[in-house]
């Protein structure tokens, strides 16, 4: 999928998809929309442009908004970025640049997906391939809108761009957005191939299994547990048919020598130069969690690091802890080791035992463990407690190496708390925590409890979080810059 990330030029084609030429003649020496969509290769390029926007979205933005304003991540002492500090301490307002960038990048991805969806049908080409490409574009549009509706609630619904007025409009009820998402994913699951049916050069593209799992996540987020259970069962109860499973070693999910494994459902491939600035995760990467002068990497600030509460939550026998947190960092290029007195993020750090040729840890957008835990949650909510517990314990058995960490029978409410807690342990810094707290309505109380814990351990005084947190934080504010451009946009309550 690496080649997918090189087609950002097509943004301009999607934005100006119906603008008239200044001349009646149609030039053939440069790309114009009227003569661009003429072959299967052009359709492929249009879809690849929609994929490319994911690179910006999941490089840093998702982790800034879905992890930093939660009980899982904190801003380092050496990172004097007001926008990041405001996210951590829940001083979030409509001027926050990360909030704005999330909105802008999601709609940029939607624009690219719309260009593919609206123009590929005009191409004379193999119908199976045509529907596959449209299915990929609709999967991506659904993903972009899913992020928007979860962060912002009601948002403008844009499915075409025939004039500049199409980009300006009021927010529509989120149920309309969800219906488009469901329709898009239903088309995608019907027309996308299984993972095994793609060639090795096309690894990372949306698949039938990815569409089903994302659709299950949509139903779960909406609280439609019966539909979530049924949709996720189609994959989890037949995982071998889809080529999915849990890798034996949790840490192998971030081992470039073993990627992509059977747990990788939808992901971004990265190929970066070794130990350079930003790296594969931008500000959220571990290279920004350590003082660069001490270890020979370029970052020199502590940025987004695990909270003490998160570290303390792990059982010492839980093997995930040694991957998610690190105290000793070895740079295989210099041989220097830095020992930290506090836990730092370790999930995306390339250990010295790995190849130092490239820093290419993939970004998981959907990991199969997510499907299993969502399925467990949906089973519990629909009365299938025995199977729900079995699914949850699949994750814990892998984490502990045996059944010693398995949970036993509990009430429905106790199980829901247990599965949300397990999601916290399983998806450290993978961009899930804020969504889980928001959709379950537990964000406010959880952040108050977190504030008390962090302030007690005195690693960093977080009493302000308890004072700042409010019900409004179940959504992000509509960016003021967008409201200045589009006068029909209203603001979310509490902002």
From TrEMBL:
GO terms for cellular component: cell outer membrane. The keyword Acyltransferase does not apply. It is found in: Cell outer membrane. CDD domains: SusD. Keywords: Cell outer membrane, Membrane, Signal. PROSITE patterns: PROKAR_LIPOPROTEIN. Residues 361-495 form the RagB/SusD domain. InterPro entries: SusD-like_N (IPR033985), SusD_RagB_dom (IPR012944), TPR-like_helical_dom_sf (IPR011990). Residues 1-23 form the signal peptide. Residues 22-220 form the SusD-like N-terminal domain. Belongs to the SusD family. This is Outer membrane protein.
């Amino acid at each position: 999928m690496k080649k997918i990330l090189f087609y950002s030029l097509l943004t301009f084609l999607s934005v100006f998809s119906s603008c008239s030429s200044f001349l009646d003649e149609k030039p053939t020496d440069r790309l114009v929309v009227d003569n661009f969509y003429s072959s299967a290769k052009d359709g492929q390029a249009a879809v690849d442009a929609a994929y490319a926007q994911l690179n910006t979205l999941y490089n840093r933005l998702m982790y800034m908004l879905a992890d930093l304003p939660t009980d899982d991540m904190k801003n380092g002492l050496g990172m004097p970025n007001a926008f990041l500090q405001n996210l951590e301490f829940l001083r979030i307002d409509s001027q926050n640049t990360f909030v704005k960038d999330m909105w802008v990048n999601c709609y940029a991805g939607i624009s690219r997906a719309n260009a593919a969806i609206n123009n590929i049908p005009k191409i004379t080409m193999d119908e199976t391939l045509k529907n596959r490409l449209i299915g990929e574009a609709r999967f991506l549009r659904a993903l972009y809108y899913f992020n928007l509706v979860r962060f912002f609630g009601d948002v403008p619904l844009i499915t075409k761009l025939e004039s500049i007025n199409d980009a300006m409009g009021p927010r529509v009820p989120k149920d309309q957005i969800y219906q488009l998402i469901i329709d898009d994913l239903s088309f995608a699951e019907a027309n996308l191939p299984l993972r095994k049916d793609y060639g090795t050069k096309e690894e990372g593209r949306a698949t039938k299994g990815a569409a089903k799992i994302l659709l299950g996540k949509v139903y779960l987020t909406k609280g439609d547990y019966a539909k979530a259970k049924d949709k996720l069962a189609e994959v989890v109860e037949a995982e071998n048919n889809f080529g999915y499973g849990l890798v034996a070693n949790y840490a192998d999910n971030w081992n470039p020598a073993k990627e992509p494994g059977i747990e990788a459902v939808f992901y971004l491939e990265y190929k970066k130069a070794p130990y350079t600035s930003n790296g594969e995760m931008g500000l959220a990467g571990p290279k920004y969690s350590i003082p660069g002068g001490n270890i020979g990497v370029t970052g020199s600030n502590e940025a987004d690091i695990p909270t003490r509460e998160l570290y303390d939550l792990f059982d010492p026998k839980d093997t995930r802890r040694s991957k998610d947190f690190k105290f000793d960092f070895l740079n295989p290029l210099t041989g220097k080791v830095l020992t930290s007195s506090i836990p730092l993020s370790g999930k995306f750090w390339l250990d010295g035992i790995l190849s130092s040729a490239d820093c290419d840890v993939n970004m998981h957008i959907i990991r199969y463990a997510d499907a299993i835990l969502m399925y467990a949650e949906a089973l519990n909510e629909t009365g299938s407690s025995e199977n729900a517990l079995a699914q949850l314990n699949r994750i814990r058995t892998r984490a502990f190496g045996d059944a010693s960490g398995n949970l036993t029978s509990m009430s429905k409410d106790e199980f829901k708390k247990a599965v949300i807690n397990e999601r916290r342990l399983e998806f450290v810094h993978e961009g899930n925590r804020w969504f889980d707290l928001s959709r379950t309505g537990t964000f406010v109380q959880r952040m108050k409890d977190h504030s008390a814990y962090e302030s007690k351990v005195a690693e960093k005084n977080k009493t302000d979080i308890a004072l700042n947190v409010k019900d409004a934080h179940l959504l992000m504010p509509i960016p003021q810059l967008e409201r200045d451009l589009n006068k029909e946009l209203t603001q979310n309550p509490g902002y």
